[in-house]
Amino acid sequence: MRNFLFLALALLSGSVASAQPQAVHRPVKLMGSGFELTAIHEDEGVANAAIDAGIAEIRRIERLISSWDENSQTSAINRNAGIQPVAVDEELFQLIQRSLKVSGITDGAFDISFAAIEKLYLFNGSETTLPPPEEVARSVAKINYRNIILDPKKHTVFLREEGMRIGFGAIGKGYAANRAKAVMQAMGIANGLVNASGDLTCWGKQEDGREWGIAIADPDDKMKAIAWLPVGEGAVVTSGDYEKYLMVDGRRYAHIIDPRTGYPTTGIKSVTIVCPDAELADALATSVFVLGKDNGLALINQLRGIECLIVTEENELVGSKNLELQYEEIMERRKE
Ligand code: ADP
Ligand code: MG
Fold first, then answer.
1. What is the pLDDT of residue 323?
2. Where are the beta strands (DSSP E) in 231-324?
3. Are residues 58 and 77 in the same domain?
4. Is residue 295 part of a domain?
5. pTM surpassing 0.70?
6. Distance from Cα 256 to the centre of ligand 1, integer Å
7. What is the pLDDT of residues 55-76, one digit of tens each?
């Protein structure tokens, strides 16, 4: 549901006198999806250079974490599943370490080793059946984050069983957004935004000095806003891509796999997480899909500074505790 959230004020443009901070927006295809980097600065040259650097950083990360690129370290880890540990860069090692931490707090709902089952699904709308149960059983047996063995001394990663695989589809874009932001900040951009295909992180203020915020679109009419959430500085990440799904017997399955069953999740249309960190938000959005509405909310309500908004299959909108104010507003507007 990539367009479910959009930055209403990012759409505003206007003539701005020179030497005033000006927003430079750059749409760009990265990691197989549409990104947009925004830098606000009085010098357009500085803004453009920072955006260039942000893009280069995301491309670098893509080369590191892609499981399709045979030359990536991630592919080397996968190729050596059940064979031997693979020495990797500190950066990848730490990303895996953080991924395992999220697996811990979500009780395995988030699991980068879900990728063992990836080949059984296309999620391009063409599938009309679920894969055969025996095949699902065989692949799901390979999913277990506890079998991802990290050796901090040797800096190696070992997938304990043959047939295991890891993939960063649910955390990579959030990580990339964080890194692009850091690179742009280091180049003097005090106000900006990175939209990694619906995973947003913003800092500072908008070009007119107002706080960043997001308009929440009506699930049934993307052009209609039903609520406004002030974000200030932080990340807003939405999971639930309408382009990637499975439709079987009239039931819609998301492109997110329940690591316990090996089947795609149902029941939730989209999850939006608001928190300071885009990477954590990305991982948690995916996790809530797997956990389902009730367990997902229970988890988010335990985490300080993290909020979530869920749209269920029945178009019910449910928010975490501190989102209640805005939630009331959403419900009011929906009645209009
Ligand atoms: P979106 O693509 O809408 O941003 P996510 O951030 O939730 O959605 O990422 C979905 C991707 O995460 C899937 O395409 C797949 O690569 C990966 N994935 C699927 N199930 C899981 C899971 N249980 N744990 C971790 N990653 C998953
Ligand atoms: Mg995610």
1. 78
2. 234-239, 245-248, 251-254, 268-275, 307-312, 317-319
3. no
4. yes
5. yes
6. 5
7. 999 999 999 999 999 999 999 9
